[in-house]
Amino acid sequence: MTLRHAILGLLSKWDATGYDIKKEFDDFMSIFWHSHLSQIYPELNKLEAEELVTSRLVPQEGKPDRKVYSITNGGIDEITSWVGAPPDIPKIKDSFLMQVFFMDNISADDVIFQLKYYQGVRQKRLDEMKQTVQEAWESIVERQIMTPRLLMSSAVLRRGLEQEVQYIRWCEETIALVEACKSLWDTDTSPDSVLPFNDAKELMENYYNATLALENDEA
Amino acid sequence: MTLRHAILGLLSKWDATGYDIKKEFDDFMSIFWHSHLSQIYPELNKLEAEELVTSRLVPQEGKPDRKVYSITNGGIDEITSWVGAPPDIPKIKDSFLMQVFFMDNISADDVIFQLKYYQGVRQKRLDEMKQTVQEAWESIVERQIMTPRLLMSSAVLRRGLEQEVQYIRWCEETIALVEACKSLWDTDTSPDSVLPFNDAKELMENYYNATLALENDEA
DNA sequence: AAGCCCATGTAAGACGTTACATGATTGT
DNA sequence: ACAATCATGTAACGTCTTACATGGGCTT
User: Fold this and answer.
1) Chain segment B179-205, per-residue pLDDT in tens
2) Which of A80, B11, B122, B127 is most exposed by smallest CB count within 10 Å?
3) In what residue span(s) does the Transcription regulator PadR N-terminal domain sit (chains A, B) (predicted)?
């Protein structure tokens, strides 16, 4: 039940058609949300039936009519109370991390290939986001206004960027780790061997210590 | 179609019941996956019908019978090829970031309250994960073995921890930002005012420059 | 006495994805 | 010529969540 809030939130900013909403999702809001037109259109109908939004048809030449939606007072109430409501505990589904978790089933070289490929995917996203940040800042400077709305969207943009930067960095670190521990994949002969541990002992000790040392109270 | 891979991946490590699988999801795997028993049981039945897993009943005293599943060769093939397959582009749904995006609808104090609350939620998760990392390392030291399996799960654990640490840090930074820009919420009188920008100009310039300076090629 | 843990499921409904359907205009 | 963009939707299917159902044993 959050698609409705994504839509109502957007309509609290500007009037829009279902098509416009989809574009906004794919563009700026893709940092935290996504949806298909085939889900947006029925949801808009529901919202209209509940009188949280209203619509009017705007004819165009050579193009289909635009069905432009506006938020009602009821809609404003709904989005405002949702924004102030206790946030959900995050329900993460990261299928790539799951693949990594099970990559002991493939060769070290294949692991590195997968990590490099995914790093590239994330880099592309990061490049697009940097573009968006650039444009957002230029538009603020040009229009010479600062508002709570722009402030909060700046914070969200930054979070999106940070996320990409840090995932990319993790990919790099993990590639280095696997590279350094390639020998573990060779010695799958003796299942109870002690040797594999000694090979990687120092390295893993450092890795775990570094992990436990990760702290949130530094600058 | 990824729940089946979560299950097959687990069964490629140990035999388990549906109930065991659920616990593993909620524990170690919660970094990247979650599911309900009511979805796991039917999926196990499907996997058995497709002969990717087999089951046997293990009677117990005073408790219901355990239906223990084992992976078949077909199941191994399926999970291996999935792990080596091109990763999906990430489909993020972060309803808290969405709330933040629309928080221009509530007061600066309420924004700070929400951010602090969420920071606490994430801190709790982080503390639990640190516990898990500690235990994982102790078990490695105790058993004196290192394997690809343990290596990959260490990397995934680290990613989970990093994610929490960085989200918490972002909450802190954003609280500071909103605190510094509280005045923006007061001056909602004149909609086209130039003043609000000048108030926050330097601060925002720094913020955007810092955002654009975020780089992935540092240590 | 109340509620959680073990252990299995079914059923109904909400939410999300992919495919299908239409049709003019604009760009490569 | 072919694909993309604008703009609306429906239908079928797949996935996920919530509620219901059972029942002994253990803890507070």
Assistant:
1) 999 999 887 555 556 667 777 888 999
2) B127
3) 7-79
